[in-house]
Recover the amino acids of this structure.
């Protein structure tokens, strides 16, 4: 039995993998490390609506250069639609139009934004004060709320802060509650500010978080003061200032999306951050999509965000293969540790570890009781699945009550896998005793932690996402490991007594 | 604490990876696994090939059939209920004798009919089978093992594991259950493994928890005097399992019945490596030698070959005989 074909395949995979990676490095200047990098955000807006069969006009606000972000390139995809970009004093807008359209329509807009060190705030003209009229009895309520906040403030910004805090959950007075029944929070705040003679408007921002999909814009309140121009307020907390990861999408006080000739319109956002060398970041790369430049980056952003995680799974598999074949660690369920490691990426390591131990420990206790009921296997495992879900819900609620938001991420654990783990460990406990459970459970946990450390390493994330060829190299490594007939590390200890005579 | 790989290599120790790829992967056709993973199939196959096995009292195949258990075992002295697809001795219930409406385990624990029925029901639902697949419960007659072996064991039936490679018996050990192993003959649970000389069936070396041992921890009986009766026919029976299953690398578990002699208990297509510890010797050189032999020899010839080439002096008997390198025992061809 010749092993030649095997080594040929391994060699071929390795060569193609290295070749693809080097080609990407040389041709597209994708660096091997993420050193001296600039972060580029790719943001994609998807507009969904149902066209009614008439002429359609869609108007979408667009982001522009601003504090912390520089617009590099933008693209649209809208088959059959006419498109024009408009610019006026309220900002930039894209306008799609078509003579006739019916049924579900999707329009895409994507932009690449470079994160800059520029911290200067853009000068904006102060908007004119709007005339505010109230119906009874809201007029007296509004007047009282304004009076109260006015007395406790010194200038437009402190006034805005006091006003917003009066509407925050724990300080809500009767007047505030009455007003909130009639108006939406941020609209209401802008009305009150305007009535008090403070120029203000509602703007929409996007909180940038890597790999997020189907996000919506959040409302913010822009308050203008005479001397230091304007400041941004969070309408829910009253916090002043613009968060680092907030991209102002619409800052002219107009609607983000206007659709004529359609209904059920909405716009959602997907985003991805990517580290690029300073030089390449500025240059547009979207033009040269050839077959050789086969990369995940040619997919829509929404799918790219998914792939960022999927491409890490082979790394986890490699860790498992290495630990089992070379080291000889026993795990409960072959690839269970990889799934646990994936959950750790979402939860962060300490929360994940505590969560995993809690779920498995409580699950084992309950499973122990279930074994007295003498049930058939499938029913028992299903019962364990429901138990796991119950444990997760209880821990989530408890940790939220205590104020530990980290506890909420416990829901990222793969529940069915956990249920099987509990079932297997419980049988192991009955048959081989707690020691074996500790060995296998500990082995699984050590494997999961090592897989997590590998998968969460920034350099490894950079390499796997930017060089698809690496997947072939991992494949060839795993094939090679599958051919290893030498001793496992732990066997050197196991067989030690034989060598002692 | 740790041995170096070269030390292990010198002793011819085989590791898990090598066993999996080089022997199980190469010589055991996956298609044949069901023959040994299902003990019922093994038993029927053995009967066709004239290999003695413990008598089958009956099988329970449906949850409904569990109710027939009492009728089935009535009139039998002792019996064993075991899952057909169990592994590693899991789910085996031994009843030494029936006492009125009670069933007495070797440890003296008394079980009721309900306990027996629940055990059979658990077996059927796959509690002990690989991957939890539905299973069949087998009821076998109890083995009356040879009295003079009884002082070497505590509660359980001692069995003899013989590794059969290409039809040649290459290494053997006896597994003696202890109080620590709870009457089970599993080495990692604390059973004593005694390496057996392939030539004579005498003890070579004893280990418990991978450490050398000279006497049984519970009975206190010294292990050196252990001699398996009817050794040659036991080896021939074990070696015949190669033709029976077609598996090239096979673990055979044998027992010796007082009246019926050596019997096949079960087969294992993935035999463990602890046998090397019990013998204080690696399998490598023996397997290498067998690989060089031409195929097509009869059972008797193969056993004779193995007895001639794998003979050893027990280190338990003599103080310390100089270990003879295997090469010196081989014909110079």
């Amino acid at each position: 039995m010749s092993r030649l074909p095997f080594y040929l395949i391994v060699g071929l995979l390795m060569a193609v993998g290295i070749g693809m990676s080097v080609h990407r490095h040389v041709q597209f200047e994708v660096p091997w490390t993420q050193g001296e990098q600039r972060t580029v955000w790719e943001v994609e807006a998807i507009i969904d609506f149902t066209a009614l069969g008439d002429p359609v006009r869609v108007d979408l606000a667009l982001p522009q250069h601003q504090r912390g972000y520089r617009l590099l390139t933008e693209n649209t995809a809208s088959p059959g639609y006419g498109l024009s970009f408009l610019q006026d004093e309220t900002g930039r807008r894209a306008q799609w139009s078509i003579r006739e359209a019916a049924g579900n329509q999707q329009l895409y807009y994507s932009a690449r934004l470079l994160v800059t060190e520029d911290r200067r705030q853009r000068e904006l003209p102060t908007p004119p004060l709007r005339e505010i009229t109230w119906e009874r009895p809201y007029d007296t309520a509004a007047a009282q709320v304004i009076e109260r906040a006015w007395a406790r403030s010194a200038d437009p910004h402190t006034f805005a802060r006091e006003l917003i805090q009066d509407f925050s959950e724990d300080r809500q007075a009767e007047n505030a509650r009455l007003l909130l029944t009639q108006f939406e929070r941020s609209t209401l705040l802008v009305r009150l500010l305007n009535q008090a003679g403070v120029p203000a408007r509602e703007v929409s921002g996007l909180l940038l978080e890597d790999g997020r999909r189907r996000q919506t814009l959040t409302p913010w309140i822009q308050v203008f003061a005479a001397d230091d121009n304007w400041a941004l307020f969070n309408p829910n907390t009253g916090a002043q200032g613009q968060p680092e990861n907030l991209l102002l999408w619409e800052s002219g006080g107009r609607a983000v999306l206007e659709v004529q000739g359609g209904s059920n319109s909405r716009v959602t956002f997907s985003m991805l951050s990517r580290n690029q060398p300073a030089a390449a970041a500025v240059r547009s790369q979207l033009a040269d999509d050839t077959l050789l430049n086969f990369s995940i980056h040619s997919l829509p952003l929404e799918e790219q965000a998914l792939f960022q995680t999927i491409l890490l799974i082979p790394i986890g598999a490699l860790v498992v293969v290495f630990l089992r074949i070379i080291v000889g660690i026993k795990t409960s369920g072959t690839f269970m540790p990889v799934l646990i490691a994936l959950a750790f990426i979402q939860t962060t390591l300490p929360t994940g570890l505590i969560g995993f131990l809690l779920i498995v420990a409580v699950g084992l206790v309950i499973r122990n009781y279930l074994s007295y009921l003498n049930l058939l296997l499938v029913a028992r495992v299903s019962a364990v699945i429901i138990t796991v879900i119950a444990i997760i819900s209880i821990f989530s609620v408890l940790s939220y009550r205590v104020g530990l938001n980290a506890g909420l991420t416990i829901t990222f654990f793969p529940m069915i896998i956990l249920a099987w783990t509990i079932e297997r460990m419980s049988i192991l406990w009955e048959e081989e005793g707690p020691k074996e459970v500790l060995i296998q459970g500990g082995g699984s946990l050590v494997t999961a932690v090592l897989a997590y450390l590998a998968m969460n390493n920034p350099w490894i994330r950079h390499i796997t996402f930017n060089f698809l060829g690496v997947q072939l190299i991992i494949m060839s490594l795993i094939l090679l490991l599958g051919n290893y007939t030498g001793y496992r590390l732990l066997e050197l200890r196991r067989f030690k007594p034989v060598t002692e005579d | 604490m740790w041995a170096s790989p070269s030390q292990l290599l010198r002793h011819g120790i085989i590791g898990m990876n090598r066993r999996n790829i080089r022997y199980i992967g190469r010589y055991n056709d996956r298609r044949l696994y069901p023959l040994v993973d299902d003990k019922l199939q093994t038993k029927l196959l053995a009967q066709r090939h004239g290999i003695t096995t413990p008598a089958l009292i009956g099988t329970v195949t449906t949850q409904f059939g569990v109710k027939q258990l009492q009728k089935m075992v009535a009139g039998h002295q002792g019996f064993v209920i075991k899952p057909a697809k169990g592994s590693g001795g899991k789910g085996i219930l031994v009843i030494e004798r029936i006492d009125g409406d009670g069933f007495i385990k070797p440890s003296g624990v008394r079980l009721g009919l309900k306990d027996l029925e629940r055990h059979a029901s658990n077996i059927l639902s796959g509690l002990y089978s690989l991957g939890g697949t539905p299973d069949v419960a087998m009821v076998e007659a109890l083995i009356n093992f040879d009295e003079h072996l009884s002082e070497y064991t505590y509660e359980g039936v001692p069995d003899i594991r013989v590794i059969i490679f290409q039809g040649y018996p290459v290494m053997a050990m006896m597994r003696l259950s202890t109080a620590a192993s709870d009457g089970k003959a599993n080495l990692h649970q604390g059973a004593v493994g005694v390496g057996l000389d392939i030539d004579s069936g005498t003890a070579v070396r004893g280990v418990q928890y991978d450490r050398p041992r000279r006497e049984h921890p519970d009975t206190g009986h010294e292990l050196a005097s252990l001699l398996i009766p009817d050794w040659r026919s036991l080896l021939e029976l074990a070696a015949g399992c190669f033709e029976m299953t077609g598996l090239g690398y096979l673990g055979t578990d044998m027992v010796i019945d007082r009246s019926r002699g050596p019997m096949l208990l079960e087969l294992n297509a993935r035999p463990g490596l602890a046998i090397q510890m019990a013998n204080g010797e690696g399998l490598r050189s023996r397997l290498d030698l067998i690989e060089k032999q031409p195929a097509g020899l009869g059972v008797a010839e193969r056993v004779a070959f193995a007895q001639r080439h794998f003979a050893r002096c027990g280190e338990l008997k003599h103080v310390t005989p100089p270990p003879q390198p295997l090469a010196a025992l081989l014909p110079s061809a």
Summary: Confidence is low (pLDDT under 50) at residues 282-289 of chain A. Residues 232 and 242 of chain A are 6 Å apart (CA to CA).
